[in-house]
Write a structure and sequence with these properties.
Layout: H1 2-32, H2 45-49, H3 73-79, H4 106-121, H5 124-134, H6 149-155, H7 173-197, H8 202-205, H9 223-238, H10 243-259, H11 265-282, H12 286-302, H13 331-335
């Protein structure tokens, strides 16, 4: 009888052990898909220094404050026709970014003076690298059969490009798909804000500013900067040890837009603020989290060097940088539609 009771006790423990194991497994899965919300790091350098200047108009009757970027209803309808993939019910009111400084404000004048100083000091290398970065973006309407498809997919990996040879759309196709879908959501939001504020470009207010890129849309916020910071904030969740690398790449992208005279510093800073809020919302979205888990698994399996000799050691030719001081109608000016 004693032996029988002992066996019965053992059998009764098995369901309990199974329940504990199931609970532990469920807890692990939940931790994998847990929702996060990161705080925005404080502004640094001249972005911080510019805050001492008032963003308010000099008065209620300044003619310069009436200047707005011309609204094109047809272009707006086209650009906003591709709806978000993850944040399907997204609204501008869901985000809290500061209004752009008034054209007549002390802050705008300080920013224009900064851009003039930047223009005075920019070197040939500054110009060439900044003009190259002007062409680093993703066309959300590109299709696999398009000749530009692979180049656009590669651009999704510009932020973080120094991580390794494995950091590319061919080795990380799920990552490329996720970031492409994120850009679709971000583009809808960025265009929405551009059409809300219709901020004129800095070279419109300051005639001595020699912009090196032709643009045909409003300034605030910067699309290049916002998308780069969005990538940085997502990638740092996959490789937190490289967070500074991702953020430096995004910072350089934002700064490059100022170097060529097409964005105010406040455009860049608003983009950083918007990007942080946007990525926080992505990590509250179940559809995004599901895809993100697949990306995490992809990184676990593929985010490493093989250290084997490649079949071909010949590099792919990169597009030539723009000539020093020559204003360019960049690819973005033609395809960011």
């Amino acid at each position: 009888m004693v032996r029988h009771r002992g066996d019965k006790s053992l059998y009764m423990k098995k369901p309990l052990l199974f329940v504990i194991a199931l609970f532990t497994s469920a807890s692990f899965c939940y931790s994998q898909t847990s929702k996060i919300a990161r705080d925005l790091t404080p502004a640094k350098g001249y972005y911080k220094s510019l805050r001492v200047f008032s963003p308010q108009p000099k008065s209620d009757h300044e003619e310069i404050d009436k200047q707005k970027f011309p609204y094109d209803a047809t272009a707006a309808e086209k650009r906003l026709s591709l709806k978000p993939y993850y944040l399907e019910n997204i609204k501008l009111s869901d985000f809290n970014i500061p209004d752009p400084p008034a054209n007549s404000s002390e802050q705008t004048r300080a920013e224009l003076n900064y851009l003039l100083s930047l223009q005075q000091q920019r070197t040939k290398l500054d110009i060439e690298s900044s003009m190259y970065l002007a062409g680093v973006f993703y066309n959300i309407r590109v299709k696999p059969e398009d000749s530009s498809y692979n180049n656009y997919r590669q651009n999704l990996f510009h932020v973080g490009r120094t991580l390794g040879t494995w950091f590319n759309p061919k080795d990380l196709p799920l990552t490329a798909n996720l970031i492409a879908n994120v850009w679709r959501d971000a583009s809808y939001l960025i265009w929405g804000f551009k059409y809300k504020y219709l901020r004129v470009r800095p070279y419109v207010l300051e005639k001595d500013l020699q912009n090196l890129e032709e643009t045909n849309w409003a300034a605030y916020p910067s699309g290049h900067a916002a998308n780069s910071y969005i990538n940085a904030y997502i990638y740092q969740e996959l490789a937190p040890e490289f967070a500074e690398v991702f953020l430096k790449d995004a910072y350089d992208m934002a700064h490059s837009r100022e170097i060529i005279g097409v964005h105010y510093p406040s455009d860049s800073e608003a983009s950083r603020i918007l990007a942080r809020q946007f990525v926080n919302k992505l990590f509250q979205n179940e559809k995004f989290l599901k895809d993100f888990e697949l990306v995490k698994k992809e990184w676990t399996e593929r985010a490493k060097e093989s250290f084997t000799k490649p079949t071909s050691a010949i590099s792919v030719n990169s597009p030539k940088a723009a000539s020093c001081g020559v204003k360019q109608p960049t690819a973005c000016a033609k395809t960011c539609q």
